[in-house]
Amino acid sequence: MSEGGILIEGLRKRYGQGDTAVDALKEVNMRVEPGEVVGLIGPSGSGKSTLLKCLGAVIDPSAGRMTLGDEVIYDDGWKVRDLRALRRDKIGFVFQAPYLIPFLDVTDNVALLPMLAGVPNAQARKRAHELLEALDVQHRARAMPAQLSGGEQQRVAIARGLVNRPPVILADEPTAPLDSVRALAVIRILNDMARQYRTAVIVVTHDEKIIPTFRRIYHIRDGVTHEEQGEGRLPE
Amino acid sequence: MISLAGRDILHAWGKFVFTGFGLGLLIGVTLTMAGVYRGMVADGRALIDNSGADLWVVQQGTLGPYAEPSSLYDDLWRDIAGIAGVAAAANVTYLTMQVARPDSDVRVMVVGIAPGMPAGPGWPRHLVAGRQITRGHYEAVADVKAGLRLGERIRIRRKHYTVVGLTRRMVSSSGDPMVFIPLKDAQEAQFLKDNDSIHSQRRRTLENPAFNRPGVPGVAEAVIASQATSNFVNAVLVRVKPGYDVAEVAESIRRWQRLQVYDRAQMEEILVGKLIATSSKQIGMFLVILAVVSAAIVAFIIYTLTMDKIREIAVLKLIGTRNRTIAGMILKQALALGAIGFMVGRISATFAAPHFPKYVLLIPQDAVAGFFIVMAICTLASLVAIRMAIKVDPAEAIGG
Ligand SMILES: Nc1ncnc2c1ncn2[C@@H]1O[C@H](COP(=O)(O)OP(=O)(O)OP(=O)(O)O)[C@@H](O)[C@H]1O
Ligand SMILES: [Mg+2]
């Protein structure tokens, strides 16, 4: 596999133990190339969020193997020591509700990540501005999150997900609160960013409006993934 | 790195300022309580310093004259004045009572001072208005805190006095302002009986065959005369000549007169260590309660502020913020709240202190100690919120 990208092989996750155990992930196999955006769809309770949490290193899988770029991060146990640094440096998160920090302005919401990694404030803000510009929200750079529209908040959240140039972006229902025009705009941005920064993007979604845009889709049912060909139509 | 705590405070400054203000009033009360204690100690010291005495001679076996009753014959001072090293010895009486003004009365400590030696031991030291007592009767010098005016007529027991001078910082150990009157008047006020009891005593004396023997006229009258006048005082204040050792002079008085003698240090120990010991324990108890209440308030406020931010904390953790950074944010907010509270408290105590009826002394050491105690309380109070924040699971940010 080339640099970047995600490879998941035979991933399992069991919640609890004994009689009450739930096998949320039974057999997950996925591959996302750098620069590619894939869709992850499935009925409620099928294990989508569980998969994102495993890949996002906030819960422990039960078995299997996960590789980010050429680094095996999990092989029947974590292979990286500092999961916090892994999340900070390798993984960008974009949520359904954008979860911006309400007491920081737009610029600092984005710049916080590089700052946490030790980048000097001025440089971190410069990087944030570049991304805000690319996402067309630089005019709201000094605003507080509460003063933004839902779509603007979502774009700021995407900027935050991208700012550390992570090789992986995990997006959980990123377009749920948006109308179809804005939803497609968000997907277009994710595609542009993926191509530009060679990022591997997984988008969990129920959103009929955006499903046709993926070239490849993973369907998950009862904790088992199936790869499908998508339409790959991204309207201009 | 930016200050997360600072940004959050700026964002929610209203909440911070209001809680800080409330906390501040509580801290203000606490500082004032400490000031009340300091004021009591200072009043005790002022009583000692302003008496102008090096030694207090009191009744054998008592802690007089301030902490316990003491009574001495009023001619003892002559013998004491004759002892080597004694520069001056003066009789003094103390009597706490209500003094009548035309339309109200005021609680004071009436001090009887020996005439004829202005600025002798026991006399008011600094006059802010008027003059010292010059006549042997019916003149008074009052502390300004009594609220009396120059030339005003006041009544002590059945006699009227004219206020001829005003002095300051002359208060009893319980903070009552002093009113100085001539010794003879004070002795009379202290031991004076009402007309009925004079009559009844006179009758008893006349009926007693030991005093009223037939054929020995004049005895009964002499006894009655001696009963009507008092020749007791509460203490003799002694000033020691320069160059003499105070302890040695005290020892010779003790030896020759078989009296109790206290020097300044012992008097201070009696006033501060014994007389106001219960009050200071009372105040200490209040301080403890106020500290606990303040801690509870800070803990509660910081806890709710943190509860409101659980989701943001989960996001911060998800994107790789250290627990240490988050704990630091909460701690700094608690400290900021404490700092605001302390400032408000300090200012409100400063403004409130002069309005208290008794002396409230705010000393910088108490303020500094108070500041550190507030900071320590805030640190402790933030621990609960920090524990909760550390337990927040970053997975919560991703949701279901
Ligand atoms: N913490 C947990 N403890 C026990 N079981 C869990 C836990 N979290 C999820 N599950 C179970 O795991 C299964 C998969 O849940 P998951 O949240 O991954 O579903 P999902 O695909 O994200 O569903 P939705 O579309 O409704 O968000 C469900 O049966 C759920 O009940
Ligand atoms: Mg889900």
Description of the molecule:
The complex is a heterodimer of chains A (236) and B (400). Chain A is built from 6 helices and 10 strands. Chain A has 236 residues and is α/β, with parallel strands linked by helices. Chain A has a single domain (33-59, 83-229), classed as 3-Layer(aba) Sandwich (Rossmann fold), CATH 3.40.50. In chain A, strands 6-7-8-3-9-10 form a 6-stranded mixed sheet. The two termini of chain A are 31 Å apart. In chain B, helix 9 packs across helix 11 (323-352). Chain B has 400 residues and is an alpha+beta fold. Helices cover 52% and strands 17% of the residues of chain B. The chains are: A alpha/beta (236), B alpha+beta (400). The interface between A and B is medium-sized, with 30 and 26 residues. Residues 15-16, 22, 24, 42, 44-50 of chain A line the site of adenosine-5'-triphosphate (ATP). Magnesium ion binds at residues 48-49 of chain A.
